[in-house]
Amino acid sequence: RSAGGHPHPHGRRRRRGALAHQPVQCYAKIESTARGWRAPQQVARLPTQCESDFVMQRAQSSFGGPRPHVLAARERLEQGRQKLRERHARGASGAKICRELTALYDEILVDFYDRALADFEQSGAPPLASQTALVAHGGYGRSEVAPFSDVDVMLLHTGSVEKRMPDIAQRLIQDLSDVGFSTGLNCHTAVSACQSALADSRVCSSFIESRFVAGNQALVMKFRRQFARRVRRRRRALATELLASRRSERSQYGETVYLLQPNVKRSRGGLRDLQMLRWWGFFYYGAADPETLL
Prior knowledge:
By secondary structure, the protein is of the alpha+beta class. It contains ten helices and eight strands.
């Protein structure tokens, strides 16, 4: 069972065990709960890929407590949220607050990313910043984050630094968890990111909303071109799969007119339907932005 006492989503018990000081391996999936780190489970991946998926909840790290820059970031985050709350109360629009909150998140993530790269640079090797990039996706990629939204990011890399990516990813996950973010982080090359998206329409829809945050912007542009080209070839299958997933979601969360408190995101006519228009626009016209589609 999970920390909250609910059955594990995969329908099986997972052995509890601390992971303190044990390095994260490529292809490993890690979960953090209020009870601490749990042992990694191997996830089947292509052997040439470095794809490390981390499913995180807000939890205190078991690595000796947050470092000073994390404590400073936590204070900056709390102060920033409070200021935005006050601005919203004075009449600032929700869309504007979301954009400014996204900018605050970006500042914190870029600081953590730069520190992680600096800690794992190797003498004589090209700078990590030239071979990696930090990419936001999902709602964070759209710059539509609420005060406690998940922060979904991808560490994109060239492949030549694959062996160093697990350590960098672990450092980022640790810092982001300690500052209070609920974070999903995956590590990909451009090729493996495209393969992951084509295998799962939900991953694909999240990557449609990808946005460059830091690092090598040319690497992100290369990924975007490959992604758009390959998605366009599979657009009908992906659109069909995504529509089926949306129908299932509507059924699960109920019809709006029959609910006292509809789910504004997942019920019929909610935010998810607006997002579906963006994704279908990308599938068939190569653009998700409404202004571009019009």
